[in-house]
Amino acid sequence: MAPHEAGRAAGGRPDDVYAAPLSGEPLPRYRMPDREADPRVAYALVRDELSLDGDSSQNLATFCTTWADEEARRLMAENLDKNMIDKDEYPQTAEIESRCVRILADLWHSPDARNTVGCSTTGSSEAAMLGGLALKWRWRERRRAAGADASRPNLVCGPVQICWEKFARYFDVELRRVPLEQGATGLRPHQLRGHVDENTIGVVGILGVTYTCDYEPIAGLAAELDAIQHDTGLDVPLHVDAASGGFVAPFCQPGLEWDFRLERVASINASGHKYGLAPLGVGWAVWRTADLLPEDLVFRVDYLGGDMPTFALNFSRPGGEVITQYYDFVRLGREGYRKVQQRCLDTAEALAGEIAGMGPFTLLYPGTGALPAVSYTLTDPGAGFTLYDLSDRLRTRGWQVPSYPLPPDRDRTVVQRVLIRHGISADKAALLAEDMRRSLEELSSGARGGGERIGFHH
Ligand SMILES: *Cc1c(COP(=O)(O)O)cnc(C)c1O
């Protein structure tokens, strides 16, 4: 091979990245290249493409972790080769997963935290599927035992995240999505009675509604299900989708009863990679007690000469995220989680105050009492601009602030939402508020495109 083809200039010195052969034309779009390339050059060019993604710390749409410390990054890199499913080959990784499950069962007040079951997943979506499957299996067993029809299961919920729509479609369950009431941020207990029946496998309550960031009143939902059982005999379990709230409420709202303290709560899912502070790719599902996970759903894999029960949709899965989750538990402890989340809540509350003071907005969720976030609507539909216009303007400064209509909501209310999470400082929130003010001025003076007004000359 000629020297230049290996990315080396005459004399064996490496080519400059941007003078190397690979950088002489666009990277492959459709076909794998025939030749190898210098990893240094390939790395630089791929990384350069990714700069188009923007800065994740300005992505205020996501609940997911966008900041990690050096030690977390090291653990991720050092465990690149660990497969979560190889319990026999990597028994200590398996042990760490079990410790995380026990720690979460304890944090969420399982009456039998040391012995109950749970598992890591790729995120809350997989965890929700597993929680939903356990509900479906248990409902079917009850129906069969009673000699009743078990062909038309339904799941009752409010404005759930799309993973529950997937669960319903993939596993053939009718999703009974209760419409949002005017001004409500989620499902309300009094709405349950009209939707729950003998085919209801469970109710999903959300601790941190994706669209509004508020908590649904889980204790109220549980009490209503108790009352329904009292009046009708229907015993409907509650699953809590605590994707975000499961790692906020225990630290910042410890008095709030949303977890296994409520007997009605059969299972909980949470995203380790959201307010759990772990890197992307880890979620958790935990059952109140081991008997609530049907044996039929459990598969066994080899483990230290014996076997270990597993419940998962995937087989191979990276171990680094679970290991790093454990590192976060060890490093931060309850004190550290409380401090990190409380700082985010304080920042969200301050930002909510700023946003309320800007004039055109009505706060839907003011950043306190639930997730560290703010959600709001445009008060006057005749304002001359929409929230989508504001999202566009903010994007010119790199901010990603989403606008979207609320799900099943009669008048298609459009909301905007800002999430504050680990790594988003008070300073960053203040910069966002300044840019919002500037954008509002531009929008209300009609310079929507902004081209002429902000054109500049050399
Ligand atoms: C993010 C989210 C999910 C999905 O979680 P992933 O971890 O992204 O799979 C489910 N439910 C709620 C309420 C969420 O916020």
UniProtKB/TrEMBL annotation:
Origin species: Nocardiopsis composta
Root EC class: lyase
Region of interest: Disordered: 1-34
Highest taxon above the source species: Bacteria
SUPFAM superfamilies named in the record: PLP-dependent transferases
Keywords for this protein: Decarboxylase, Lyase, Pyridoxal phosphate
Co-factor requirement: pyridoxal 5'-phosphate
Pfam families per the UniProt record, alphabetical: Pyridoxal_deC
PANTHER family xref list: GLUTAMATE DECARBOXYLASE
Identification of the protein by name: Glutamate decarboxylase
Family: Belongs to the group II decarboxylase family.
Gene3D superfamilies membership: 3.90.1150.160, 4.10.280.50, Type I PLP-dependent aspartate aminotransferase-like (Major domain) (3.40.640.10)
Modified residues (N6-(pyridoxal phosphate)lysine): 274
Catalytic activity: L-glutamate + H(+) = 4-aminobutanoate + CO2
One GO CC term, this protein: cytosol
Coiled-coil annotated spans: none
